[in-house]
Amino acid sequence: MWETDVILVGSGFGGMSCAALLAHYNFDVIVCESHSIPGGAAHSFERQGFKFDSGLSLTFWSIILCLA
Ligand SMILES: Cc1cc2nc3c(=O)[nH]c(=O)nc-3n(C[C@H](O)[C@H](O)[C@H](O)COP(=O)(O)OP(=O)(O)OC[C@H]3O[C@@H](n4cnc5c(N)ncnc54)[C@H](O)[C@@H]3O)c2cc1C
Fold first, then answer.
1. Domain coordinates of the chain in residue numbers?
2. Mean pLDDT of 9-24
3. Of 7, 23, 54, 61, which sits with the fewest C-beta atoms within 10 Å of its C-beta?
């Protein structure tokens, strides 16, 4: 029997951000993902040696870091 404080459905940016914050504040978190690869629209895949982003390729935070 599993015991946890929070169960999050989906390992995209939304789920993973919530999970990271909750874990930071000492909550036990389980993230459930239906896909074989975590990350949701944020993951990537390879074909014939080329890597493709499934969704986003540029995030707000990467812009901030580049400008800093
Ligand atoms: C082509 C494309 C380009 C984009 N480009 C950019 C960009 O350049 N910059 C930017 O900031 N944003 C971009 N976005 C938007 C960004 O990717 C999304 O806003 C963000 O990833 C959404 O995160 P999310 O966690 O809400 O959802 P998602 O990333 O969709 O994650 C949801 C997860 O939940 C899982 N799931 C769903 N139902 C269940 C279930 N019943 N049980 C278990 N798991 C489940 C899914 O498999 C998925 O992994 C783009 C989106 C697309 C599609």
1. 6-67
2. 94
3. 61
